[in-house]
Every structure is written in C-alpha cells, then in structure tokens.
Amino acid sequence: xxxxxxxxxxxxxxxxxxxxxxxxxxxxxxxxxxxxxxxxxxxxxxxxxxxxxxxxxxxxxxxxxxxxxxxxxxxxxxxxxxxxxxxxxxxxxxxxxxxxxxxxxxxxxxxxxxxxxxxxxxxxxxxx
Length: 128
Known about the structure:
Elements: E1 3-7, H1 11-23, E2 27-31, H2 34-46, E3 53-57, H3 66-76, E4 82-86, H4 92-95, E5 104-107, H5 112-124
Helix pairs in contact: 2-3
C-alpha cells in the first residue's frame, strides 16, 4: 500500500482528503503545519517506512507553510516526491511548481479523478 503524508491547516480538508485518498487505496498520515510534516517525514524514514508522496498546502495560517516544509523535506531526501496544493492559483509555487522542487500540483477544490491521476503519475515517475 502506498503511503501519503498530507499537510493542511484545515481539519475539514484533512478529513475529506484522507477519506478520498483512503478510498483510492492509500495509507494517509496527516499533519496541520510544516514542522509536524518534517517530523513525520523524518520518523517514517527512521522506521524504514518512507512516504511515497508528500502533499502540502501552500498557505498555512499558523506554523510553517508548505513551501518551507517542502524545502526541509528535500534537504532530508532530495528524491522525496512532493505535490503542492492550494486554492490560491496565483501562488508562485502553483504557477511554476517545478522550479520550487515539486513534482506536481493539485488545485483546490479537489476532484477524486484528478487526485488519482496526479498521485499515480508522481509515484510512477522513475526520475522523480
């Protein structure tokens, strides 16, 4: 089973997205800000159960945002597969995600089929 680390500061979004991803067959770990995401990523690697994908929201009201969290995760594992997510489509990362080290982006509101396509593409990309 593929493992996904999911970061969003809205509990309702985490709950909904966790159910959507669970429906697609993924094991989901959630966190509400970047420091938690980095800690969860570090723990998973130490336990030899790394995440296949890390999805981070760009705008976090309290705590480390997705862009910062992704940079920290890339320092820990340059091959980490990262997906940027936001409803703010003009955010610099959402405009040009690759230049910020992300493998893909998913816009809010989420659509199940689009999530599936993006995650499968990132997981199966041999050069990610």
